[in-house]
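User: Second chain of the day. Same drill as before.
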Amino acid sequence: MGEALVVGRIGEASSAEDPSPSVGRNTHCHSALRILSPAAGVEITDIDVSRPLTPEVKETIVDALLAHQLVVLPGQALTRERQFQFAAEFGKVESPDADRRVGKRHGVAHVLSNLGADGNPTIRHSKAANYHWHTDKPYNAAPPTLTLLHAVEVPERGGDTEFANTALAYDALPEQTKRRIAGQRVAFRPAFDDSRPGAVHPLVRTHPETGRKALYLGNHATHIVGLPEAESASTLAELLAHATRPRFVYRHRWRVGDLVMWDNRCLLHRAVLDEHSGKYRRIMYRSIVRGTVPF
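Assistant: Same format as last time:
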């Protein structure tokens, strides 16, 4: 899980024994940062996102996201409206899909749950179910930069989410494979539904802020443009299997109050389907921050 250390800005370590009286919630100095895995993820404590952020705290969160791709802010108590306001600190927040717009609150963080029409936990089996590896909304012309998920109610057992670092996965590819896939483009379509518009993006995309290259694929990827169907399918399957090897994956065990933010430009994720799935209630609030056109 990694060791806890005390930091101000990411990379500026200071002593955990410093008794400075200025330390407090939403102060820039001395927030506790804990690396969660070699693959991705860092937990930052002593930040209360129910309160307005100072520029320094926002910078700390952004630095952590760029360095570790995923940030966990534990112990948060948020209304959907406050979650929307927090997400808006990092860009324009997308409205939910049309079929999820319910009532007057469709513009704020929307509810994701495993509850069926009868109010009981269930498992949804479909090609677009969230237990398939995916990045959020890759079928948009400008897919999301960030997703934020706030744990409102979590299962007694199970209900974990896995995250795969596709930048690390790309770095680990043989040079021959990197040359083979350079310049290839992938078609994405929501739920594989030909009646809905999709988008085409680079198979290897460049992070606009760090310059790192990462594989861009997962569920909703229908084919590699210009390749024969069989070659396209085998290439996507080969790369997905590589990108989701255990050494590139962080598995998050949810606690009530966890607010998890992740970078869709270099992470895949999925809900873990196991023997506990569908047995316990799981309710989350989700916000998505609009991104830019991949290159």
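The helical segments are 55-68, 80-87, 166-171, 175-181, 229-243.

User: Great, on to the next one.
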